[in-house]
Amino acid sequence: MKRMLKQLACMTAAVLLAVSSFPAAAMASEGFTGEDERLIDMADLLTYEEESELLETLNEISERQKMDIVLITSEDMDGYTDIQEYADDLYDYCDYGYGANRDGLLLLISMPESDWYISTCGYGITAFTDAGISYLGSAMKEDLSSGNYASAFYTYASECDQMITMAREGHPFSKKDLPHAPLSPLVLPICIVIGLVGAFLIVGSMKAQLKTVRKQTAAANYVKKGSMQLATQQDLFLYSKVDRVKKPEKDSSGSSTHTSSSGTTHGGGGGKF
After folding, report:
1. What is the pLDDT of residues 17-43, one digit of tens each?
2. Assigned domain for 46 exists
3. Is residue 234 situated within a structural domain?
4. Model-level pTM?
């Protein structure tokens, strides 16, 4: 039964492509394993023009980067209860991927529950770390929530392109690459005021305690009488050797993996919008 659902999902996608009114861009490039389109909008979220232009963008990036970048929207789960399993099976049974390791990733948008999930495979697992997938979701979330689907999907394509390039250059996206939220313009003035008030109170308190202090001209006046008796004096040379070993930082650029129903290793992650 499950296998029939998997086949049905790909057949449904194929039928939608067959009846689509816009010309399908040639995908069967050397090295890619499948012939299905990289954009399948089963939930009908995009206009004709948006779909055509976005497909062209996905094809260009995929072929240049030699990695399948796939986007599928669904108006139901086709009998699946787990979006991770659904996304993995769409990738596997629709034969997406580049080369022997089937490098690539697939973004699945499930409209009934407002879920998104990214399934990665092959080199896609290396290029799209857990931190990277989380960032992709955050980058798309606002547009997905407000119904600006084309904008969200262009963000997906653009960020995928950048993350693949980073990985090819030996620096897969990690937590260190996450953008930091800008500070409020009120933070600096508030900190200055708090600092000035605190300094004024501390200095005032210290000054109040020094009212009985008088300037002394002789050093002996600062030593309590009979408190110091120097019997012997000896200089000793003391030394110490300290070896410092940098504590290894926790790896923030890794990808968690799992095995799909077909036995293929996948990475991935998802969330709500």
Report:
1. 444 433 434 444 578 876 679 999 999
2. yes
3. no
4. 0.68
